[in-house]
Structure prediction request, 290 residues.
Amino acid sequence: MTTRPPLRPLPPPGDLRAELARLVHATRRLVAAEREGGVVTLPGTPRPPEPPAAPAATPHAPHAATPAAPPPATPPTTPRGTQRAGPADSFVPHVRPLDLPDDWRAPFGDLPQRITACRRCALGEKRTCTVFGEGSAPAELVFCGEAPGYEEDRTGRPFVGAAGELLTAMIERGMKMRREDVFILNTLKCRPPRNRAPLPIEVGACRPHLEEQLAVIRPKVIVALGNHAVRALLGESPGITRMRGRVIDALGAKVVPTYHPAYLLRNAAAKRDSWEDLKTVLRLLGRAPA
Ligand code: URA
Prediction:
């Protein structure tokens, strides 16, 4: 039988109220932090049933704010056994709309339309929106992520959830550039179910889109966010921890591997290395790190 430590004596009624207020405050902060990370139920709690498969989305304009198919009543669960916060249409992007000219996609010709209609792999059947990417073209700097997540699939914009908020802060507060001045895209244009890792067949099917985008953007530097992006861009990767800190000539640019912002949200200690990588990027661009 386990012996429990004796309970602390109850504080007097006045203190009890203060303690309760502290507990409520701490719990609110904890819940807010979890929500920020997209979590509303914790691993181990019973999962709600998966929503019925959404009907295949009809082609739609890239970056359309309105999903082509109605969002499922219950959002899908993430791979870590957690449930995403809020129904799709209640999601408010963590990232402001970009201040770009209406015709910012013009340099890409009909590529946005071709990506919207793409059925090269099975991901096209389940997506709500394709996520072309967004920013300026040409641009000297590209950030390449892995694949759209839940929020991106709903909004058609890249990196608009908690990880996107951090990426935006890295660009704007850290590098002193505007998100509008760079281009942000992903190796895949459609969300893999339950945010699972991209399959090689999907990366291969989407690669021509990525190459066409890069040929138009003509970046000097491509920041590869996380191991999947590194592998998709370079063909192989022994792991992001071994790849970061290096600069690799590929795809007509300098490729700088660094940690994915979603990883940084869970591992704040890695932000120091990530900032070193961003300083390397600034040097490669001829901009003195602040
Ligand atoms: N993670 C990614 O890799 N890409 C996004 O667009 C969002 C989250």
Observations:
- Residues 31-87 have pLDDT under 50 and may be disordered.
- The CA atoms of residues 187 and 207 lie 7 Å apart.
